[in-house]
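Folding problem:
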Amino acid sequence: MASPVTGLKCEIAVLFLLICSGCATGRFNTNCEWPYPEDQSRLNLARWSDRWHLNNDALIAEDLAIRYADRVGVLSKPFQREVYRGERSKCMAILVAEIARTHSATTDDVNREIGRRFWPFDAAVLLPFIVLYLRVSTGFVRRIVVRIGDSRVGYILAVSVASVIFASVATLCGELWAGLAECLRVLNTHGSYRVLRMPWAQHREIAFAGCLFAFWLGAAYVLRSETSTLASRDWLTRVGAGDKSRQII
């Protein structure tokens, strides 16, 4: 039987591989220069592969603009937010126009892809976290069952308090988890305004409610399995006692 540590290592490895499949791959620079001037392919946005290509280019352009603003905007003394945003927007416009030209698309097509989320990436981030959360929460619930025993009222009270605590912590940890994955995706520790587009950051209430529901679902499963186990043990005990009594007779 695989240990919890081994299972956790496997989940992290799967997460890393899935994140890498959705990473922006680009020759990054801080000079506001498009790194692929030789890519002159005409894209058909009706095809998923071409749309993914444009989405990846838009992601690279956005990151290059942020890197450029980080280098140029920070040089202004004192730091002025409007100067920073202006430099970022100016660079972004240059890169978007270059992408549109090289792929025979419009600037509107490129701008639409900038804010579009790549759903396989979001699913790859969410699913391992759900598995990890269920494993940790059900393990904790089993400890509650062992501690409390047959007291249904005590079990419900303990699970109620623990579910709120677990869901609150998981909501915060989930956002950190998603933020780390986003930084790995763009290969930049400065997430900037991009982190606000993450589904987890946009739907914190839903994330909390989902963690709460998952905890209770796991608690119900644990209670049912533990009850079945205890019932089986009682039945075996009664059968064993009956066999012994018949032997004595």
Remarks:
- The two ends are 43 Å apart (CA to CA).
- The chain has two domains: 24-114, 119-238.
- Residues 1-5, 14-25, 238-246 have pLDDT under 50 and may be disordered.
